[in-house]
Design a protein that fits this description.
The complex is a heterodimer of chains A (about 90) and B (about 300). Chain A is an alpha+beta fold and about 90 residues long. Helices cover about 45% and strands about 25% of the residues of chain A. Chain A has a single domain, classed as Arc Repressor Mutant, subunit A (Orthogonal Bundle). A three-stranded antiparallel β-sheet of chain A has the order 2-3-4. In chain A, helix 2 packs across helix 3. The longest helix of chain A has 17 residues. Chain A is globular. The N and C termini of chain B lie far apart (about 65 Å). The chains are: A alpha+beta (about 90), B alpha+beta (about 300). The interface between A and B is medium-sized, with 18 and 18 residues.
Chain lengths: ~90, ~300
């Protein structure tokens, strides 16, 4: 899967924010607050294909958590982003 | 020497204006006539300027062809029907109003902005105004400057920027300020300009555009706060989180919604404003009490 092209991450003070212009209508601009690990994963995945396993691996590497927890956290984030319409799946 | 002559002639027909500290020009066959058509621009006129250092120069009397491709966007705004076409060469915009149509072409990077305007007819005022607003918006954003939909009140050099959907009561709230707060003035009532500066300050500028209120002041003030207005049975003021503030200001900013690069640049300017300026939410009635709430966002005399 991939992060959609219209997604941007912005930093306001300590807060990382994901901004998504859905189509041409400004009323559909969505802004989502991100925690540090989500901002890291999304930031480095811009314009690239990635999998839940890949994200879990990156979480385990960066935050020293075990594989099971990393998989669960990565899956949770992917689910949330899917729900927000931020991801596109390539076949 | 024919070439030199025509060059002098072209420079002769250059009208220059400065909005929020950025210069732009109009190349016209008759400066006096064009000045007369653009009366709201009078206080923004810059004399004795040259073609260098302009954000853009809008030229007329050219034939502009609409590319043979589907339009990327179409919208109706300010009683004009707009069609946008994007090619590798640049952006073509067709504007229609009643039975008239005029077109503009902006090359990629906007070094060249040409149109089929003659600059000699009063009937073109609406079109010239729209073209200038568009050209200003897409070029000034490169200099940390954006146009927003807002009404602005100024007191002793500090400003409050009132945002809100059309019809919410931005102008009404500003008018109540003028009634109840001695010394305050209306800086702009519809389309002010926000500009970020290197020293961390944000200024709001008047513009030759101000909606239906003829308030075309060439002046500026330092932004103290941004307030998003909502109609409410009770008056209440609360500070928004940065995330909410960003959303609020971004939705009020003028942008080219079909152009991703332009939207990115506008978002960047908005983000910088939000890092510097607090944003509030005002649920309000159109009354004096609501004004007393926003009055507290500007310094009082005893503060100094």
């Amino acid at each position: 899967m991939q992060i959609k092209e219209d997604i941007r991450i912005k930093q306001i003070g300590n807060e990382s924010i994901l901004v998504y212009n859905d189509g041409n209508n400004l009323d559909y601009t969505r802004i989502i607050s991100l925690n540090q690990s989500a901002a890291l994963l999304i930031g480095e995945s811009m314009g690239k294909e990635f999998t839940v396993q890949h994200w879990a691996h990156r979480l385990a590497e960066n935050y020293g958590i075990d594989k099971t927890r990393a998989m669960s956290d990565a899956q949770t984030l992917v689910d949330k982003l899917k729900q927000a319409g931020v991801l596109c799946e390539r076949i | 020497m024919e070439v030199n002559k025509s060059y002098i002639c072209i420079m002769d027909g250059l009208l220059t204006y400065s909005v929020a500290g950025h210069l732009f020009g109009i190349q016209t066959p008759d400066k006096a006539v064009t000045r007369g058509i653009l009366s709201s621009y009078a206080s923004f006129t810059v004399e004795n300027s040259t073609a260098s250092d302009l954000l853009f120069c809008l030229k007329g009397n050219r034939q502009i062809d609409v590319p043979d491709i589907p339009c990327i966007d179409r919208l109706q705004w300010d009683i004009v029907d707009y069609h946008y076409y994007l090619t590798g060469q640049g952006l073509t915009v067709s504007m229609k109003h009643e039975n008239r149509e005029h077109r503009l072409f902006a090359s990629t990077g906007c070094q060249d902005i040409i149109s089929d305007i003659t600059f000699l007819s009063r009937n073109e005022a609406l079109f010239i105004n729209s073209f200038l607003r568009l050209a200003y918006g897409v070029t000034a954003v490169n200099y940390q400057t954006i146009k927003v939909h807002a009404s602005v009140i100024e007191l002793d050099g500090k400003a409050l920027v009132f945002l809100g959907r059309s019809g919410t009561g931005k102008s009404t709230h500003s008018r109540l300020w003028l009634q109840h707060i001695p010394g305050c003035t209306l800086l702009n009532d519809d389309e002010p300009i926000l500009r970020n500066f290197e020293d961390g300050t944000v200024r709001v500028y008047g513009a030759p555009w101000s909606g239906s209120t003829p308030c075309y002041r060439n002046d500026w003030a330092e932004v103290a706060a941004i307030v998003h207005l909502y109609q409410s049975p009770d008056n209440n003021l609360s500070r928004l989180k940065p995330l909410e503030g960003l959303s609020s200001l971004y939705k009020s900013a003028a942008l080219l919604r079909s152009d991703r690069e332009n939207k990115d640049k506008v978002l960047d300017v908005v983000t910088r404003v939000i890092e510097r300026i607090p944003v509030y939410r005002l649920g309000c009635r159109p009354d004096h009490e609501a004004v007393l709430l926003t009055r507290g966002l500007l310094p009082m005399e005893w503060d100094s």
